[in-house]
Amino acid sequence: MQELRAIQMLSEPAREFLSDVSLAVNTPEAAEFLLQQLELTHFSTPRAGEYLRHVALNVAPERMTALVSPLEMITGAPLAQRIALADGLNQAARQRGISLPEAATAWTRRVVLEGTRYRRRCYSQDGYRKRARSEV
Q1: How far apart, in whole angstroms, are the C-alpha atoms of residue 104 and residue 7?
Q2: How many beta carbons lie within 10 A of that of residue 128, not counting itself?
Q3: Which residues of 11-43 are buried (b: 16+ CB within 10 A; e: fewer)?
Q4: What is the pTM for the complete model shown?
Q5: Distances from the Cα of 104 to the Cαs of 23, 24, 45, 100, in angstroms?
């Protein structure tokens, strides 16, 4: 908890700089820093998907469950951002040869399903517009 308070005392540009540097450091400590940064920003940083993938790739195995609670924070985030986060988690799990915690797996499935439904709606609306134009 003391480390989180120390991170909070840094300026936003300093935290962003350290976050970018942390992406080049493949250690559990760098993953913990990025996880804390994601929690502080409520996943609002543009590189949240990259940060979360890095966390999933490098966090200590016993800390994988720490990825679950932050996911619930971002249910209102834009769909594109949630898809990037879900993809990052899935990619990290494949690379590490591990299974995500069940709650994280359920979250990624929901996001992918929502993305698929959104894509189908867009295509069906676009197809409808093209048909309507050709009939005129």
Answers
A1: 26
A2: 10
A3: eeeebbeebeebeeeeeeebbbbbbbbbebeeb
A4: 0.71
A5: 22, 25, 20, 6
Condensed to tens digits (0 to 9), the pLDDT of residues 24-48 reads 999 999 999 999 898 888 888 888 8
Nearest to 57 by CA among 18, 95, 107: 95
Give the DSSP H or E segment for 3: helix 2-9
Q: What is the pLDDT of residues 81-127, one digit of tens each?
A: 888 888 888 888 899 898 888 999 999 999 999 988 887 877 776 55
Give the residue from 39, 18, 45 showing the smallest Cα distance to 29.
Answer: 18
